[in-house]
Design brief:
- The structure is a single chain.
- The chain has ten helices and 13 strands.
- By secondary structure, it is α/β, with parallel strands linked by helices.
- The strands form three sheets. Strands 7-8-10-11-12-9 form a six-stranded mixed beta sheet. A five-stranded mixed beta sheet has the order 2-6-5-4-13, with helices on both faces. Strands 1-3 form a two-stranded antiparallel sheet.
Length: 252
């Protein structure tokens, strides 16, 4: 079974509304590297790096769907590690499709909505602002903050860091996956009791502490595994293809 790369790419562009989502300049959402045009196996990874490229090639993946693409450093010469990555992609006939914020904020397969549902949040609605668009979600729970930590630890296989500066009840919970620690101020302004994200800056500890907000860091990598898995599973189902997750945790 195989599918046309261009058809898959165009489908993903529409499904994720790539053209309508504002993002960082070098995210370059969409198809970043093409292969000869045929896809027989889909891979999912959080990051497009040498490890995931090599592992995908070994698994005979010919389309790698990632959250963090190849070009975060901006315009650079194709030398050194950049050249090694490109050579490996070409040699393996491996295409790369990247979706950053379009995947974070998607209402079906997005990192934020999936993490919110994993936490059992109810009455979920958009939360937080990035360039005029909601970047996270918020919802309510009857669980305690400690119960949220246990749920995250078991589901993501991590050891979450809890800054227990608010109520013992998790209450109104905000979620921004990845590096969302800078959104503690917006969480406070939105009446969030417990803010769940991946990681953040040092000063976010004092922000949470002094504003009386529970802050849970569950890992940048871990909180962003949900979306690429769901997206790869979705596209594989639509096009009748097998898929697998290429795991490469950073511990961050």
């Amino acid at each position: 079974m195989s599918a046309d790369l261009r058809e898959i790419s165009e489908y993903l562009d529409q499904y994720l509304v790539i053209g309508e989502v504002s993002d960082w300049e070098h995210a370059l959402n969409g198809l970043q590297v093409e292969n000869v045009g045929e896809v027989t196996r889909v891979g999912a990874a959080v990051d497009a790096c040498q490890f995931t490229i090599d592992r995908s090639a070994a698994a005979h993946v010919d389309l790698l769907v990632v959250h963090h693409g190849l070009f975060w450093g901006g315009l650079e010469p194709i030398t050194g590690r950049n050249a090694r990555r490109i050579r490996a992609l070409v040699a393996a006939n491996l295409a790369v499709y990247s979706a950053h914020l379009p995947l974070d904020i998607h209402r079906e397969v997005g990192n934020n909505i999936l993490l919110a549902k994993l936490l059992g949040l109810e009455q979920i609605e958009p939360f937080g602002d990035f360039k005029g668009q909601p970047i996270g979600v918020a919802g309510n729970t009857s669980a305690s903050r400690e119960q949220l930590v246990v749920t995250l630890a078991e589901a993501l296989e991590v050891s979450p860091h809890l800054i227990a500066a608010g109520s013992g009840d998790a209450g109104h919970v905000g979620v921004v996956t990845g590096g969302g620690g800078n959104y503690v101020r917006q969480a406070r302004e939105a009446g969030i009791d417990t803010f769940v994200t991946g990681e953040g800056p040092h000063h976010s500890h004092f922000d949470a502490e002094e504003w009386g907000i529970n802050l849970i860091y569950a890992g940048h990598y871990a909180t962003e595994t949900l979306g690429v898995k769901a997206l790869a599973s979705h596209v594989a189902e639509v096009f009748g293809l097998p898929w697998e997750f290429i795991d490469h945790p950073t511990g961050l």
